[in-house]
Specification:
The protein has one domain. The protein contains three helices and no strands. It is an all-alpha fold.
């Protein structure tokens, strides 16, 4: 694993310490890695939505039903890309 040195603002450092005190995570590194994983997953969702919007703008109206669109969205949110 790559080793990094980073600085935190006081409020962010206090929040990190609180998470460790609550025993949610065993170390700041574990917490930061989890936050990055969450951000990466969120970016996948944003990219999917952006692609759908771009596709929609180019193609006009969709033929998908609202149920199909909802199902696709739920699948994405559950990590079934």
């Amino acid at each position: 694993m790559a080793r990094q040195s980073i600085s935190f603002t006081k409020p962010n450092d206090e929040w990190l310490k609180t998470q460790l005190e609550n025993q949610e995570y065993s170390s700041k590194s574990e917490l930061i890695n989890d936050l990055i994983r969450q951000a990466r997953k969120q970016q996948v969702q944003i990219d999917w939505i952006r692609a759908k919007l771009n596709q929609s703008e180019k193609s006009g109206f969709t033929e998908d039903t609202k149920e199909e669109i909802l199902s696709q969205s739920k699948s994405l949110l559950n990590g079934q890309v």
